Amino acid sequence: MITSIQQLKKHLTLTEEELSWKESPNSLPILITDYYMSLMDKTDINDPLRRQCVPTAAENRTAGLEDPDPLAEVEHSPSSRFIHRYKNRIALLTTDVCAQYCRHCFRRRFTGNLMGPLTEEDIRDCCSYLEKHPEIKEILLTGGDVLTLSDSFLHHLISCLRKASPALVIRICTRMVAVNPDRITDSLISVFKSFPEAPFYLMTQFNHPRELTESAVKATAKFIDAGIPAMNQSVLLRGVNDNADTLEELCNSLVFNRIKPYYLFQGDLVTGTETFRVPLEKGLALEKELRKRLSGLAMPLYAADLPQGGGKVPLCGSYIEGKDERGWIFRTSDNQKRIYPDPQE
Ligand SMILES: *Cc1c(COP(=O)(O)O)cnc(C)c1O
Ligand code: SF4
Q1: For the segment 48-107, what is each residue's pLDDT rounded down to a tens digit?
Q2: Strand 311-314 to strand 301-306: parallel, antiparallel, or no bridges (unpaired)?
Q3: Are 282 and 339 found together in one domain?
């Protein structure tokens, strides 16, 4: 495990930009797993894996309109540990600890502050909220990374949630399979298997095809073989995956390994992350190109989580050009015109 610049220097020849990163109250700690380090091309200063975990001075700069909490999550939090933005689902911040800290993390206001797991009181608060709000059908176990919690803690947490709301669909949101696949043990899987009453979904974060190693794929397969479908949420990251070939390979490889590409997120306006954001025009062009190259199954939804808590919206160019007396006027993906009339009665 690597936790400091000093240790990083033993593995990599650091660039000026990396060496001048400064720890600050707003910054995420350094934490890189040995496993992830082993995947890196140590001779390439622009390695897409290196970019995701080695900090640079760019993190210490604040670009216009950047904010520590651009999604206004704090405002939408009935307690410090959960966010209720959409009527039928909530996000539970189970811990602020991760197995590895991503330099592009959008929840850095919370992540890596060494607060640790939620307390018994936090669990009780969440459960009584669930009991009072039967409209909540899904819960996202997020953070931080929920799989940094121990098997016994997870078992306890899930029993409480299931008791409060027996049919609750639980999403396990984690980057663990990509950064420390050894954590996915049979005993971890048996925790989920012991709650067969309602479904779990695994929500992974693979951002680059090289993260889909044999061990990462095997770790994910343990969930899928246990009846837990896997969905992937990637972040569109400059210098990591902002080209059609890389995204095409990533999405096809996900589908091949039974992981459905779910979202491709435009970078949020989080303090210190401008270096990772891709201009929207480029993102839209990538989306258009991917839609031509990928099957419907392999195509993720390109989306932005709008500033000031505006919520998630899909991003794509319009295929509808207008409407005349004949019906709706469409443009096909290879730019031909088609008319689609509404029903006449
Ligand atoms: C993204 C998010 C969800 C889940 O949204 P889906 O579009 O259903 O994946 C739920 N709650 C919060 C606070 C979120 O940010
Ligand atoms: S695993 Fe998730 S919460 Fe943790 S640093 Fe990465 S993006 Fe942030």
Answers
A1: 999 999 999 999 999 988 999 999 999 999 998 999 999 999 999 999 999 999 999 999
A2: antiparallel
A3: no
Residue 246 amino acid letter: T
Domain count for the chain: 2
Residue nearest to atom 6 of ligand 1 (CA): 312
Task: Give how far Cα 124 sits from Cα of 4, 79, 90, 131, 167, Å.
Answer: 37, 11, 15, 11, 18
CATH number, domain of 218, equals: 3.20.20.70
* Strands (E) located in 241-293: 259-265
DSSP letter (8 states) at residue 2 = B
Look at residue 336 and tell me if it is in a domain. Answer: yes
Instruction: Select from 36, 54, 101, 110 the residue to mutate for testing ligand 2; criterion: most ligand atoms less than 8 Å from CB.
Output: 101
Predicted TM-score (pTM) of the model is 0.97
230 with 329, same domain: the answer is no
Pair (72, 133) in one structural domain: yes
Residues 109-162 have pLDDT tens digits of 999 998 999 999 999 999 999 999 999 999 999 999 999 999 999 999 999 999
C-beta 203 within 6 A of ligand 2: no
Task: Give the closest residue to 208 by CA, choosing from 44, 16, 6.
Answer: 44
Tell me, using a 6 A CB cutoff, whether residue 142 lines ligand 2.
no
Ligand 2 neighbourhood includes 267 CB (under 6 angstroms): no
